[in-house]
UniProtKB/TrEMBL annotation, chain A:
The chain crosses the membrane at residues 6-26. PANTHER family: FIXS PROTEIN. It comes from the Bacteria. This is Cytochrome oxidase maturation protein, cbb3-type. InterPro entries: Cyt_oxidase_maturation_cbb3. The keyword Secreted does not apply. Keywords: Membrane, Transmembrane, Transmembrane helix. It comes from Flavobacterium xanthum.
From TrEMBL, chain B:
One of its GO terms (molecular function) is ATP binding. GO terms for biological process: copper ion homeostasis. GO terms for cellular component: plasma membrane. This is Cu+-exporting ATPase. The lineage of its organism: Bacteria, Pseudomonadati, Bacteroidota, Flavobacteriia, Flavobacteriales. It is a multi-pass membrane protein. Belongs to the cation transport ATPase (P-type) (TC 3.A.3) family. Type IB subfamily. It is found in: Cell membrane. The keyword Transmembrane applies. It comes from Flavobacterium xanthum. Its main location: membrane.
Amino acid sequence: MSVIYLLISISILIAIGFFIAFITAVKTGQYDDDYTPSVRMLFDDELLKSTKKENRVENNEEKELDI
Amino acid sequence: MDTQNCFHCGLNIVKAEEIIFDEKKFCCNGCKTVYEIFSLNDLTCYYDFEKSPGATPQDINGKYDFLDNESIVSKLLEFKENSTAIISLNIPHIHCSSCIWILENLQRLQKGISSSQVNFPEKKVRITYNPEEVSIKTIVYLLSSIGYEPYISLENYETGTSNVDRSLTYKLGVAFFCFGNIMLLSFPEYFEVKEYWLDQYRGFFRWLIFALALPSFFYSASGYYVSAFKSIRSKMLNIDIPIALGIVVMFVRSTFDIVMDYGSGFFDSLTGLIFFMLLGKMFQIKTYSFLSFERDFKSYFPIAITKINSDSLEESVPIYEVEKGDRLLIRNQELIPVDGILISEKAEIDYSFVTGEAIPITKKSGDKVFAGGKQIGKVIEMEVLHSVSQSYLTQLWSNDVFQKNVIQKHKTITDRISRYFTPILLLIAFSGFGYWIFIDANIAFNVFTAVLIVACPCALALTAPFTFGNVLRILGKQKFYLKNALVIEQLAKVDTIVFDKTGTITTNKKSNISYEGEILSDEYLLLIKNVLRASNHPLSRMLYDYLPILILPNKSANDAKKWRVDAFEEITGKGMEAHIFGHQIQIGSAAFVEKTEENKLQQTSVHIKINGVYCGKFIFNNQYRDGLASLFKNLSGNYQIKVLSGDNEGERATLEQLLPKGTELIFNQKPEQKLEFIKNLQDNGNNVMMVGDGLNDAGALAQSNVGISISENVNVFSPACDAILDANEFQKLNYFLKLSKNSITTIKMSFTLSLLYNVVGLAFAITGNLLPLVAAIIMPLSTITIVSFVTLMSSYYASKK
């Protein structure tokens, strides 16, 4: 059997695989909210928090110096 | 630095009330408490994402007692099992990334919450919690204490989970899948390669294409067959008939071609056509998930209310169980859900949801109170006269306008065109067939199908969706939110505009205050301002904002701000009395300052008495929206304008002066009368646009051809309507109307363009030269030109002010 049958069958099968993935994604509601995830992924982990706090204290001190 | 903003909520801080905590400045105790809660739980990251993102928590004492009632709670829950429950709460305050962050970290604040997920566009948070460890009431209290008070209304009571219709997305997915793969497999055909090995596989490729076209033909395009069938049955020729005809003929002819080995068929064009048309449909749907266009009184009314039983026990009961003769307890800021008689001595009721009037009305014991008002002040008791569905306001919803599901009020512009298009198309197809049949039966058959295929009005069908979709987005950016694309067509046809008065052409945010009486010295004004600060009455707040901060010559500004009020007493429904700096100051109603007033027209005023001497009164006039006069002047050129008001004629003179001549003013209109008024106009052949705001306009909004609701806060309050307009954009109304007219012009131009393509295609078809390749080129080419043409044109019109 010629290889072209095999190759095209495989390509169609892969395409169908992606198609099924798309349908399940829609079905589970992943496309219902297309904004929140984009914000959520930018949140830092809590571990970074302590250093951040220090930064902010520094900022405040600078502000006070300005005045 | 003079202006300081609160670290939590960003409001200006009044110097005398400033609270400094943890080196941060707060405007009030509420904001400070929220900060404390966050810093205790290591959640101060909240303030890093956005500057001062918070809201001051409101006093909600007792407001959510109904959440103790199991049967009510179970109606609200989305899911419940032994140790897991899920609830979706609507939180109007959600507005920035800080909000998302804090609400998704709720589990740090409260044990028992396992996770929470924010849906930002819908302003909802979905909380999964363990009902054995934490009650829903605790969660609601927690949310309120951090300034995210959920909005729970009667609407939540009836709908558990709503089913989202995703079929269009599926159809589009299927169509794209088929289209893409068929395109790839069609390439050998396009290039007509005559090599041996491609010839050998031709059959395989063609049958594969055929198989791939099946889902698109049977599933994705199914909507067109149904619509075409319906339209034939109702004898209304819509655009879906030639589309469905084209698709079916294309499929049959292509199948025939493949079976007889005549050629490759038109499956590439077929699936492409289906895909592009579905894409247009998708583009036309622009939903604003945080808005609701279907609101009736249910979204305003609370779920439950406190009932006083015969043994004077308080109990939360669902609103629908309230019966005539029940005694109800209404707390501060609670909505009165039914008509009744006031039992308590006095009450202040704010009817702004209903009429748009911001200034509360005072009611005495024995007075009738109507459903829809918001109680302000101390707890009151009332006796029920009618159940919810029979109340004065809610009766409006039993009118026919709200009963029928109005699906198609009018013919769309595309359908009007297709009424001519379809017969002409069939005529051409048959005359082509009739001509060729005498020459060659085979060619005749080809020509007949080719005409139907090439004339399939893909570009025509795409014109309106893409134009309207684009205009819908442009308007949305300018805070004019339309329910759907049909509204644009309706807007373009409007010839009569009816405005509600209070809350629509007037604003309830500001009031035009004038003073009548003896001239007050600067010192007195300052004293009054200081006294007013202690009061929460809406009139006091308005007057406080109105009075300027005066600087006395012999005192510094800082001194002046710190003047303390010595004794202060506020009597609900009357006024307030205070001692400050050795002066006795009384502010309140005419009766309170013992002033007999000649009662001419109803007027809202606050009287001032200092040291026992009557000074004068501040009069609150309606403040008309900015740009009202010029808007009306512009509109009056093209439209008939009418103003409908539920109020008395007190403002007639002012309005007549402000508005252009010929504007009809009608006063004293009840909600049903407003509806009738619109109906009469329509019976006289007018296309009426109603602009309103309160629940009392709901009938008129539903009856009118286009109902626009003006809203100061688009997230929360607006009655059912076709479009919601942000109150700040009110003066742009004329521009919006013009834009909608121009978009119709755009569509007409684009129709001409797409008809040209049809003529070119038909020229190929009628001469029997339509090759699959030609069809495959014409179809996407016309689609792309049409889509870019309408997008450019509508954007151009939008930028033209």
